[in-house]
Design brief:
With about 230 residues, the chain is α+β, with helices and mostly antiparallel strands. The protein has 1 helix and 15 strands. Helix content is about 15%, strand content about 60%.
Length: about 230
Amino acid sequence: MGFTKTIGCLGVVAMMAPAGQTLAADLGASQDEAVMAAVSQKSPWQVRVRALGVLTEDNGNVDGIAGSDLSYSDTVIPELDITYYFTENIAAELILGTTWADVKAEGSISGLGTVGEAWLLPPTLTLQYHFTNFGQFKPYVGAGVNYTIFYNQDGKNAMSDLDIENTWGAALQVGFDYMIDESWGVNLDVKKLFLEPDYDITMNDGTKLSGKAELNPWLVGAGITYRF
């Protein structure tokens, strides 16, 4: 009788073993699905705040004046950018900030000194590719467009009026985030804007001139990243 019971118990155990394996597999799959769900629920939004150095190319000309050149002051400003991730690799970034520039006469017209000043609002939109196989180090590259609005323009010294035209331009970008945790990180970013607006000026004696301001600035920024 005892032998029969033993055989019966072994049979039950044998029947339960596959069921246990199936249950364990189901639990493992459920855990994997839970992890994937948590990842997929990660917000697509990210913001950065940077200190930004605006370094201009310092080229330009006044039409009809041989050897004329222009230069522009460099500045350091705060910058805010907002990023939306379509996937973990593909994102779009809107870069917001405003700065100013003194315009100085150079070359054959250097005797005029500082001839004007203007404020710039250069919103820039880039499409980025983010590399995700380097752990906490997350480099990216981007390219996009810029539309620069010039405002509060003033002529100085020999110039009574300055009018720089709002201008479209291209933008290239490279940078990286180093994520301290899932939300917070530090950022280093470099952008090149191709910005060459036309301008019109009126001299104090009423003479009207025009030319091209070849700003083409480098934007070098460092700051803090927050991923929602």
